[in-house]
What does this fold into?
Amino acid sequence: MATPHIESKLEDIAEVVLMPGDPLRAKYIAENFLENAKLVNTVRNMYGYTGCYKGNRVTVFASGMGVPSIGIYSYELYKFYNVKKIIRIGTSGSFHPDIKILDVVLSTGSYCKSYFDQLLDNQDINFVEASHILNQNIEKVADNTHIPIKIGKTITSDVFDLYADNKDVFRANFPGDDYLSVEMEAFGLFYMARKLGREASCLMTVVDSLYDKRSLSSEEREKSLDQMIQLALDAVIL
It folds into this structure.
């Protein structure tokens, strides 16, 4: 079995998937967290790997950047490969004063000003919630392992917010002031899960903030991401 963007056989993909944006991060996770990991997709260098974690089959599959890209891969994995759960793991920024660099944020839902839903389904939906069940699993694992997480809504943007000419104008496009994170993929994943009756969550490590100007070393970034990866893996197999 293959799709226009995935060359894997049906049996190559597990029912649960971790989805980083970066294909090389998918490779890193497979090599450092999974046993007997097998490369199952190389189309467009969007790497996918399937292996075992604590005796459970898990696939790690990259999404690329932006709603269109994660929309394609999540749709094909849900629709054609019978995937039940996807947790996006990635990085984000924040405009919220209570969120600091290296905080881990769990999204309860994402707001997006995009024509994605209108073009695909003739819908007008700006906000989509994450899976309550999958989020509860993540919260349970975080509590049991004493990993602090912040929980709240996400902005999904079609542009990289740091490149916006005026941050206040950019921020004014999104109603309310209770968004903990800003990134570029969560809405697409949540929308596809909603459309197809599947589960989706999003965990993010904050790497830039208007209220915290620290510059991260590669070691700091990697250590924080490892903690988030571990949290997602333990939650996705519950």
Notes: The helical segments are 23-33, 67-81, 116-121, 132-145, 167-172, 186-196, 218-236.
